[in-house]
Amino acid sequence: MGKKDNATENLGQKLTLTIRSGKYKVGYKLAKKALRNGNSKLMIIASNCPAVRKTELEYLSVLGGSKVLHWDGTNVELGTAVGRLHRVCVLTIQDAGDSDILTSI
């Protein structure tokens, strides 16, 4: 329970700050749209996202110039971290707000 738990906890705190003060989109379709338009700066993918979707989103993020972060937890845990009451497989961040999540990765 050393650095990995602390890093995950720190990332969760940065993510909640981003949710409060920044701009983000939740979901596969909105993530694809944001990546195609070049609006996304960071994309967070849950660990249990299907492999086909994951590779497609990673490919689109390379084309769109977006960073990719693989969330260690499941889509249920990502949904809880975002403050939603449902599962979240993909989250794109357009504006980090007061958080420094974009520079720390």
Number of strands: 4
Measured between the Cα atoms of the first and last residue, the distance is: 21 Å
CATH topology: 60s Ribosomal Protein L30, Chain: A
| Cα-atom radius of gyration | 13 Å
**Roughly how much helix do the residues carry, as a percent range?**
40-55%
Structural overview:
The chain is 52% helix and 17% strand. The protein has a four-stranded mixed beta sheet, sandwiched between helices. Strand 2 (42-45), helix 3 (51-64) and strand 3 (67-70) form a beta-alpha-beta unit. It has one domain: 60s Ribosomal Protein L30, Chain: A (2-Layer Sandwich), CATH 3.30.1330. The mean pLDDT is 89. The chain has helices spanning 3-21, 28-37, 51-64, 75-82, 101-104, and strands spanning 23-26, 42-45, 67-70, 90-95. The chain is of the alpha+beta class and 105 residues long.
Give the secondary structure arrangement, pairings included.
Blueprint: H1 3-21, E1 23-26, H2 28-37, E2 42-45, H3 51-64, E3 67-70, H4 75-82, E4 90-95, H5 101-104
Parallel strand pairs: 2-3
Antiparallel strand pairs: 1-4, 2-4
Summarize the structure.
The protein has 105 residues and is an alpha+beta fold.
Top keywords for this entry?
single chain, alpha+beta, 4-stranded mixed sheet, 105 residues, 60s Ribosomal Protein L30, Chain: A, 5 helices
